[in-house]
Specification:
Distance between the termini of chain A: 46 Å
Largest interface: A-B, 37 and 32 residues
Number of strands of chain B: 6
Radius of gyration of chain A: 22 Å
CATH topology of the largest domain in chain A: Cytochrome-c3 Hydrogenase, chain B
Distance between the termini of chain B: 126 Å
CATH superfamily of the largest domain in chain A: Cytochrome-c3 Hydrogenase, chain B
Shape of chain A: globular
Order of helices and strands of chain A: HEEEHHHHHEEHHHHHHEEEHHHH
Order of helices and strands of chain B: HEHHEEHEHEHEHH
CATH topology of the largest domain in chain B: Alpha-Beta Plaits
CATH class of the largest domain in chain A: Mainly Alpha
Oligomer: heterodimer
Number of helices of chain A: 16
Helix content of chain A: 40-55%
Strand order of the largest sheet of chain A: 1-2-3
Number of strands of chain A: 8
CATH class of the largest domain in chain B: Alpha Beta
Helix content of chain B: 40-55%
Radius of gyration of chain B: 31 Å
Structural class of chain A: alpha+beta
Strand order of the largest sheet of chain B: 4-1-6
Chain lengths: 376, 209
């Protein structure tokens, strides 16, 4: 049978393409086996695991404290919220009170993390749409300022290792609050500039609006969380639902999308970042004095009582949870992570089928994943 | 928005403003020309751990007592310590081998937090890439030991705190030693007084004998 004989058969109508794992738009080492009919996607099979590091098993072999720096490497765009989720789960497990000042510090660094995640997201998504260069650089210019704040506070730009059980590791260096306020005050101007740059752009609107809509019911059934879920019109923000930490003391609104298409997912982050600016201003204004860590909490040789706990927070990407089982020893018996990136990825095929191949990258971009968290 | 293309035009205005602005506004010119220009690191910046020694001689001034807490707590287990022994085979409070594999180290600072002897601290040196893994990235004691003066120069606030703590500890120890000496003296004096009191009784049987 020659190649020409298959013309017109099913086999010849479709084309298999392997996107990734080194594709510049796939947000890390992620591969998609796409089957195309013409330009339309008929099948999409995500392949991941390239960045698997055995995080959960390593954490079970190390002490409770030693798992903390590993959590930085989960979602490496926003390490501090990962620290927070783990510390929060351990505090729930062992019933540790958190120092008042540390609660405020956590909100401040946590919301700064949300700002820099959403700034990076805007840059990446616009990059996916072909706006390589300006948009990404403007976003990274802003993100860099926040990373500088993290560096002067925690000593590292990305691998912060900042939270401790019952508090935070170190107090603010002199002048940090002023520097943070400057960044926070400028941030809305950056968002305005970003919106002026591209959100009115007709090409961008054509590429985003109406692409891959996700209904509210399907989003809930698919286990979506975070901005992806809220873009589908579901009012579900763990900061409001659980009010963990001290979030119930702050006034903020939870933005929602209408149709859950790429444009809603994109704009939701912009609005959410604006709300975060409001939370940051309230938290900085209300920052009390006092110790930064509960003096009763033990870090080294920490042995929580036997039991289990699930602690979850609203990370910039969605619901980040840690499920911990303790058998009373100095290391976790079971250490399980519920990563928002992985679970938000489960509906990727459904979103992509029927769209054009060029839209696949944008859909993946607006779901906003980080492979460190997907593979663990 | 009504005129087609106005959104694109608006975006171009932003780009133009940034482009022209970068020549005039310092805030917009954020790029550092890295190898020529160096960033000033914040005081907290950390890269890899090193060992602090007091005075001028690394061997005698070494603060490390080879307690191996850091070795046990290190999350990626990149620290390797062997305790030193004297000629008779008795353990000395000093490491014979102290290796840190900085190819494995993840700069988490947990060794610094758990060290009870203020011995291990974070360096802020960067540009440590090398062609050979074992001779350059597996740091042994001679490469790890750095003076307290160096530590003060890279983390002034933290070093001042540490020095203060060590000084306070030393004073407390001295005071305790002085108190102990005074107590011993007092006890000796009391004992002597008792001996004097008891002396006649002691002498009695002798006299009677």
């Amino acid at each position: 049978m020659s190649a020409l004989d298959s013309v017109g058969s099913d086999e010849a109508r479709t084309l298999d393409i392997s996107l990734g794992p080194q594709h510049p738009s796939t947000h890390g080492v992620f591969r998609m086996n796409v089957t195309l009919e013409g330009e339309t996607v008929v099948k999409l099979k995500p392949v991941f695991g390239y960045l698997h590091r055995n995080h959960e098993k390593i954490a079970e072999k190390n002490s409770w404290l030693a798992a903390m720096p590993y959590t930085d490497r989960l979602d490496y765009i926003c390490p501090i919220t990962n620290n927070w989720a783990y510390a929060f789960a351990v505090e729930k497990l062992a019933g540790i009170e958190v120092a008042e000042r540390a609660e405020y510090l956590r909100v401040i660094v946590g919301e700064l993390t949300r700002l820099q995640n959403h700034a990076a997201f805007l840059g990446f998504v616009l990059g996916d749409m072909g706006a390589w260069g300006s948009a990404l650089m403007y976003a990274f210019r802003e993100r860099e300022k926040i990373l500088d704040l993290f560096e002067s506070l925690t000593g590292a730009r990305m691998m912060c290792n900042y939270m401790r059980f019952g508090g935070c590791r170190c107090d603010l260096p002199p002048g940090w609050i002023e520097a943070a306020l400057k960044v926070v005050d400028y941030f809305p101007a950056f968002l305005d500039e970003m919106e002026a740059l591209l959100t009115g752009n007709e090409i961008l609107l054509a590429r985003l609006q109406g692409v891959a809509p996700l209904g509210a019911a399907r989003a809930i059934n698919g286990g979506m969380s975070g901005p992806v879920l809220r873009a589908s019109g579901v009012d579900y923000d763990i900061r409001k639902v659980d009010g963990y930490g001290i979030y119930n003391r702050f006034k903020f609104r939870v933005p929602r999308g209408e149709v859950g298409d790429c444009y809603d997912r994109f704009m939701l982050r912009v609005i959410e970042a604006r709300e975060s600016v409001g939370i940051l201003k309230q938290a900085i204004a209300g920052l009390p004095g006092g110790p930064i860590v509960n003096p009763k909490a033990k870090q080294r040789g920490f042995r929580p009582p036997a039991g289990e706990a699930y602690g979850r927070i609203e990370s910039p990407k969605g619901e980040l949870g840690f499920y911990l089982i303790s058998d009373g020893s100095d290391r976790p018996y079971r250490f399980r992570i519920r990563p928002p990136s992985l679970i938000n990825l489960t509906l990727l095929e459904e979103l992509c089928i029927g769209t054009k191949i060029a839209d696949v990258m944008i859909i993946l971009g607006t779901v906003d994943i980080v492979l460190g968290e997907v593979d663990r | 928005m009504n005129i087609p293309g106005s959104g694109i035009f608006k975006g171009l205005v932003v780009t133009a403003r940034n482009f022209v602005g970068s020549y005039f506004e310092k805030d917009r010119l954020t790029t550092e020309q890295y190898p020529e220009e160096r960033p000033t690191l914040p005081e907290n910046a950390r890269s890899f751990p090193f060992l602090v020694y007091d005075g001028t001689d690394p061997e005698t001034g070494m603060r490390c007592v080879s307690c191996k807490i850091c070795e046990k707590e290190c999350p990626p287990q990149c620290i390797f310590i062997v305790q030193d022994r004297d000629a008779a085979g008795k353990a000395i409070k000093r490491p014979k081998v102290f290796n840190i594999d900085i190819a494995v180290c993840m700069s988490c600072q947990i060794c610094v937090e758990v060290c009870p002897f203020e011995s291990i601290r974070m360096d802020n040196a960067y540009e440590l890439s090398a062609y050979d893994r074992f001779s350059s990235l597996l740091l042994d004691k001679s490469k790890l030991l750095k003076s307290n003066t160096y530590y003060r120069s890279i983390h002034p606030t933290e070093a001042a705190e540490t020095d203060g703590r060590i000084e306070a500890d030393r004073l407390k120890k001295e005071a305790a030693a002085a108190a102990k000496a005074a107590a011993a003296q007092k006890a000796a004096a009391e004992k002597a007084a008792k001996a004097v009191e008891a002396a006649p009784e002691l002498q009695k049987p002798e006299a009677s004998a």
